[in-house]
């Protein structure tokens, strides 16, 4: 009875894997055809790109002092927006987690709201808030807060759903109410995820706020748009370098914190 | 054994939604201060029986009294009040691994605090002192500020016992408390439970697989098989042979009963 069975044809030649891979490749080629992606044109006109790069390779260093202030403004916008979004996201993510809220109906409503918020494009939100509160960083903060809220609440509730449920049971058996269960058994288990997702969102918001500037929502984006409009690519280079610095710093802080918290 | 019962089961049955029978017409009276050991095969209903006492499981029919009061219809605040008076020990300890030992022990006390006070961690001086004493009682005073996942399995289970002790429980339920421990730590965990029973007159109910431990620590042993109470004797009358019978696969036992 102790004989190794022979593999079937399907198992031996990995038929399933081959079929799926072929399908996937066909799908990519097909969609490229339909959307009209033309690689030949891309490479033929590559010179345009290098020309732009050459111009940007001579950064206009004198512009640096002018850029510091708006970059700081961008960071401030991102920080306030992310913080506000996160604070609102925490209760929502708890209510959306399958292992905390057993009531399907309530959870469904909360998740629907979250899906709705995530569907709203941030550019549309920015345009909306510029119309409401006027041109300036305040519109950017509101936009980023809502954008962060949508993203963070999804990341958070997925983190909450992965926790060890033993401590929840223990707290419940000790006579804790729902809020006490969340505070004592859930939050400590997901806290490091929360910090890490907060920083991740913060980084995304710094980059997103450059685009928001196009719509007049304040920050470095306003300067980016101006430099591009004036074909002042030396200035563009400085702005991009500045944003890169900020992103690198956030990434470094995020890594250090995560290591310490784990 | 003439003391008034602290827990009483009257014709308790439990059928799960998928039709599985958890408990079948259980009648059981447990006096205050008893050390009761429940034995039986996995799936015999030991955990279910235990969890009906603090209403972590609801029953289908029958009635359960704790301290003379029916508990089957308790809700909200009253249910939490019942649970707070019943400590529970789990096979997997169920500590919050990333929290300190102190916070884990104190979390046994939250049933006595308002939501906002406990949320902000505003535990009274007395309770913090009580947590230290509870920890010292299980020999782990020096671990107060360690993170729970730095402790060994046996130490974690003893922290869980300290947490249960914080509840000022009248009853402690221990669901296979030693199933994931080595023989040496098993000893100390069982000793800790026995001390709660003897020093504080706490009623202790333990689910066990080990027949020898059951005989050493229990005042009384009950056996479950297929959700039915098939054995109930004080420790003085328990024989090795009885216990072996409880652990027979159901089919064999049925046959031998017919022959007898």
Automatic annotation (TrEMBL), chain A:
Residues 71-254 form the ABC transmembrane type-1 domain. Keywords: Cell membrane, Membrane, Transmembrane, Transmembrane helix, Transport. The chain crosses the membrane at residues 13-32, 77-97, 181-200, 206-224, 231-250. One of its GO terms (molecular function) is ABC-type phosphonate transporter activity. Pfam families: BPD_transp_1 (PF00528). The keyword Transport applies. CDD domains: TM_PBP2 (cd06261). It is a multi-pass membrane protein. GO terms for cellular component: plasma membrane. It is found in: Cell membrane. Belongs to the binding-protein-dependent transport system permease family. This is ABC-type phosphate phosphonate transport system, permease component. It comes from Pediococcus ethanolidurans.
UniProtKB/TrEMBL annotation, chain B:
It comes from Pediococcus ethanolidurans. GO terms for molecular function: ABC-type phosphonate transporter activity; ATP binding; ATP hydrolysis activity. Residues 7-251 form the ABC transporter domain. This is Phosphate phosphonate ABC transporter ATPase. Keywords: ATP-binding, Cell membrane, Membrane, Nucleotide-binding, Phosphonate transport, Translocase, Transport. The keyword Cell membrane applies. One of its GO terms (cellular component) is membrane.
